[in-house]
Write a structure and sequence with these properties.
This protein is an alpha+beta fold. It binds beta-D-glucopyranose (BGC). Residues 494-818 form the Alpha-L-rhamnosidase six-hairpin glycosidase domain.
Length: 926
């Protein structure tokens, strides 16, 4: 017998019971791992090695690894990590880390973790991945693997030889010719050489990498094609100390059978021929252009082949007849040799190369992004000013050169002269920029047509600062399509953004970015036209602006190493870096020299980079010893001081002494970080001495007032925190008075331009700081805008260079005050940071984004009636202290409660609402 169960309708109670059972079962399933509760929702992205995405040129023994994370949850962070490094992707897939398995490390650190595995080898590729444990200790998946490749680590790895063209021009005559140059333009030189080498490949190529340096600059071709879009490469260094090489991937350019490599060289900074006041034509490294090239080919069967620059290469004069970083370039297309960089070329008539000693400097892989054409601009206006002469206005001041697309009869020469201004009668005016170079040719390119069709050309090894170009020798008409302006600079990524409701401030921000970018062509420069020099003061003043707006880590690290290279054994630093030897006794002083301390310190604050501190520290100690010899009873009387002031002059000893004090404080913090407590105490003791001397020297003993209370002096005493704390309130009020009662409003130079807005803001007068920036009154940033500036200028009047970055801290002020984002020294690199926006009257909204190692910090606020809406994004694995005005506030529509949804703390202190927030997006209503 078997029983049959018939379906019958369930009672209401039975149905409820069934549903409950089902729900419990579902809940059980979801908790029991079938939906994998054991894997965190935390997602790892962007694995970087030494700040770069899959780099192929790492030469650090312990490269530093970083990653970013994203999450749907609020308040998410990392509690532990595990890194795996393997020699092949397959091993990594199987989680077999044959080189390094860090094991589970209980740490929130997710940036700059030094590799700590087996020894890394030249030219090898390493694969890595990471998994992390989230705030609740739940592990994530392993990240999508990334890799890095080592460059050549040892001197012995280099088999190639430096080669140059045979010498034609007599070097004795060369020097004389350079000196004669003002009358004898241009300084004569040989046509620049081409080099070639052909070789045969008879196996399948797995990988091919060229390790190459060509000085001053080089272009590499493989089988006729130019490798990479780099220009002005490698980056400028003191070649007697450091020489950079690049690693270029040729894998897809090589083929079975005959192959050819071609190299074109430019003089660059290596073989300067202009007669400038900084003596670059007599630099210790000066020599004929030279190249070192080592091509390493690996075949699929595991065998290898090298192609090395040596006596077997051939050379010939190329079409570049003249090239100078400051004077310009002449290209004679009639001298082009068809097929010179291709296989099958008949190299009869090509000459033997010379094997040369090459530069003295240590070879290092170039770690900074190369200079590239970052933008192309069309002419805004073309005016004919003579029979064959035109003025082209690109509407924007910039660094770069023109690109020509045109046809012309064989042998026709056109010239391009570059400038920032026109004379009142519309002619090109180089007067404000050509005064320090003694050649009659300056910022001038020439092109000679080969004829027979459309020709495209831009200079290769030279660049200019310009907005206007005079084109002469052109039988019109000149059309828009014939010329574009190529804007070039070091290709660092833009990682910040500032925008607001006031067009004037947006234009000031844009002008600052144009100047910052134009003034970073391999090194930070003062101006892209007149000097192109790495003035240390300009760079340190603009460094926070750089760090807010761009990913500057490797570019600044490299330049700090350049400063270290430039230092003399007694600790003295030159005003420009790199230098030919000029500028040690020019009087730059502490406000300039402090780049050696300030930039590493800012890299620590903004990026969390400690290695640069360790690298710079020995030089910093040497420098401070040197600086102590310049101080008399604690006062440093040496230095340029507040350069390019509006009207009031501030004694240089006041600002120089304050910089000395600041240097000592920075050095003491560095000593603490490096575990040198005795040195820390010594620096602090010295700093206290200097502070006492400053307060004694610059304040009246009876009244306690600053003796010479210029805006810069007041700002300096406050900003540098060197005035006794008992005086600060009064000083701040005095500074406010000085600004508000001055018919000038703003009255300072480049140092005051940093101190005054920052000091006013720090001491409760953000409104006053805002008013001196948000105005078109003379003098000021807004006044430049009103007068048509598209970049920042060298002085308030606009009499000198029109593209200088030294007044450029204003952009950092926007981020720190209007968006309100600032780093926290106690938790550097924005692991923890502060947000305190200033809801300035007259501003309707502000958007500020700061890219960090952890992800983007995003602040957007807008006013609507009496309400303010503030939207914040805080990256995973970071926290932020948010300071807001008193009053009721809602977060995501609710009254904030500590411990809820990413809100770590909520309190009311010092008349402000203080929130401590974890990662996530928050909508706050005030
Ligand atoms: C440069 C400046 C620099 C200054 C120092 C000038 O010629 O252009 O930007 O800082 O000299 O004296």
């Amino acid at each position: 017998m078997y029983s049959v169960t018939y379906w019958k309708p369930l009672t209401k109670l039975q149905a409820m019971q069934k549903i409950t059972t089902l729900l419990i079962a579902l809940l059980f399933i979801s908790c029991s791992g079938l939906t994998d509760k054991n894997i965190s929702e935390l997602h790892i992205s962007s694995l970087l090695c030494e700040n770069q995405d899959n780099p192929n040129h790492i030469d650090q023994a312990s490269p530093r690894l970083s990653w970013q994370m994203s999450s749907e949850k609020k308040g998410q962070s990392q509690t532990a990590y595990r890194i795996l490094v393997a020699s092949s992707p397959d091993l990594l897939t199987e989680k077999k880390a044959d080189l390094w398995d860090s094991g589970k490390i209980m740490s929130p650190a997710s940036v700059f973790i030094p590799y700590n595995g087996r020894e890394l080898k030249s030219g090898q590729k390493y694969y890595f991945t990471v998994k992390v444990w989230d705030k609740d200790g739940i592990p994530s998946e392993y990240a999508k693997p990334a890799f890095w490749e080592m460059a050549l680590l040892n001197k012995e790895d280099w088999q190639a030889k430096w080669i140059s063209a045979p010498r034609v021009f007599d070097w004795g005559k060369r020097d004389a010719a350079i000196k004669r140059a003002p009358q004898d333009s241009p300084a004569p030189q040989d046509p620049l050489p081409l080099f070639r080498k052909s070789f045969v490949i008879d196996k399948k190529v797995k990988s091919a990498k060229a390790y190459i340096s060509g000085l001053g600059f080089f272009e590499l071709y493989a089988n006729g094609e130019k490798i990479g879009d780099h220009i002005l490469s490698p980056a400028f260094t003191d070649y007697s100390k450091t020489v950079l090489y690049e690693v270029l991937d040729l894998t897809t350019y090589l083929k079975h059978g005959e192959n050819a490599l071609g190299v074109m060289l430019g003089n660059g900074w290596y073989n300067q021929v202009s007669n400038d006041v900084w003596s670059f034509s007599r630099a210790p490294w000066i020599a004929d252009p030279t190249v070192l090239c080592q091509l390493e080919i690996e075949f699929t069967d595991g065998s290898k082949q090298q192609v090395l620059s040596d006596e077997s290469w051939k050379c010939a004069p190329g079409p570049i007849m003249f090239s100078s970083i400051r004077l310009g370039e002449t290209y004679d297309a009639t001298n082009e040799t068809e097929g010179w960089n291709q296989p099958g070329f008949n190299q009869q008539g090509w000459q033997e190369v010379r094997v040369v000693r090459g530069p003295e400097g240590k070879l290092k892989a170039q770690n900074i992004p190369p200079v590239k054409i970052m933008d192309e601009l069309n002419p805004k206006n073309i005016t004919r000013i003579g029979k064959n002469t035109f003025i082209v206005d690109f509407g924007q001041n910039m660094s770069g050169f023109i690109k020509l697309t045109a046809s012309g009869e064989k042998g026709r020469k056109i010239s391009f002269r570059y400038a920032e201004k026109l004379t009142p009668d519309g002619k090109l005016d180089q007067a404000n920029i050509a005064n320090l170079v003694g050649n009659s040719r300056f910022q001038t390119d020439e092109y000679i047509f080969k004829g027979g069709g459309t020709e495209e050309w831009h200079p290769r090894f030279s660049y200019n600062g310009f907005r206007y170009v005079e084109v002469s020798g052109w039988e019109g008409p000149l059309n828009e399509g014939n010329l574009t302006a190529c804007f070039i600079h070091t290709g660092f990524k833009t990682t910040g953004k500032f925008k607001c409701s006031l067009p004037l401030l947006n234009r000031i921000q844009e002008n600052t970015l144009w100047s910052f970018e134009s003034n970073f062509v391999n090194i930070p420069t003062d101006c892209p036209q007149r000097e192109k020099n790495g003035w240390t003061g300009d760079a340190q003043l603009a460094s926070e602006t750089g760090l807010f707006n761009y990913n500057m880590l490797t570019s600044y690290e490299k330049w700090v190493n350049d400063i270290i290279d430039a230092q003399k054994p007694d600790g003295i630093l030159p005003g420009i870096v790199p230098t030919s030897g000029w500028g040690f006794h020019w009087g730059n002083g502490p406000a300039w020299d402090c780049a050696l301390l300030q930039i590493p310190w800012n890299l620590y604050l903004y990026e969390g980079d400690r290695r640069i501190i360790a690298n710079a520290y020995p030089s910093i100690k040497k420098y401070l010893e040197f600086l102590s010899t310049k101080s008399e009873k604690g006062i440093v009387k040496w230095g340029l001081g507040d350069w390019c002031p509006a009207r009031a002059k501030t004694p240089a000893e006041l600002t120089s002494t304050a910089y000395y004090y600041q240097d000592l404080l920075i050095a003491s913090k560095m000593a603490a970080l490096l575990g040198a407590p005795e040195e820390q105490s010594a620096f602090l003791a010295k700093a206290a001495e200097i502070k006492t001397a400053f307060n004694r020297e610059f304040f009246a003993p009876q009244s306690g007032e600053l003796i010479n209370p210029t805006q810069t002096a007041l700002g300096c005493a406050l900003f540098m925190q060197i005035a006794d704390s008992s005086k600060t309130k009064r000083l701040a009020a005095e500074l406010k008075e000085a600004v508000t009662t001055s018919d000038y409003n703003l009255d300072f130079g480049i140092l005051g331009a940093k101190y005054v807005p920052n000091a006013l803001s720090a001491y409760g007068y953000k409104d006053v700081a805002f008013s001196i920036i948000n105005t078109t009154r003379y003098p000021g940033w807004g006044n430049w805008v009103e007068r048509g500036a598209t970049t920042l200028w060298e002085d308030w009047d606009g009499k000198s260079s029109l593209n200088h970055i030294m007044f450029g801290d204003v952009s950092a002020w926007f981020y720190k005050n209007l968006a309100g984002i600032s780093p926290d020294e106690k938790s550097p690199g924005f692991k923890h940071f502060n947000i305190e926006p200033y809801f300035a009257p007259g501003l309707k909204w502000v958007k500020g984004v700061k890219g960090t190692r952890y992800g983007d910090i995003d602040v957007y606020w807008s006013k609507s009636g009496k309400e303010i809406n503030l939207k914040l994004k805080i990256p995973v694995n970071t926290t932020a202290s948010v300071l807001l005005p008193p009053g009721n506030l809602l977060i995501d529509g609710k009254i904030p409660e500590a411990g809820k949804e990413g809100i770590i703390q909520f309190e009311f202190i010092k008349k402000k609402n203080k929130l401590e927030l974890g990662s996530g997006t928050y909508n706050i209503r005030l």
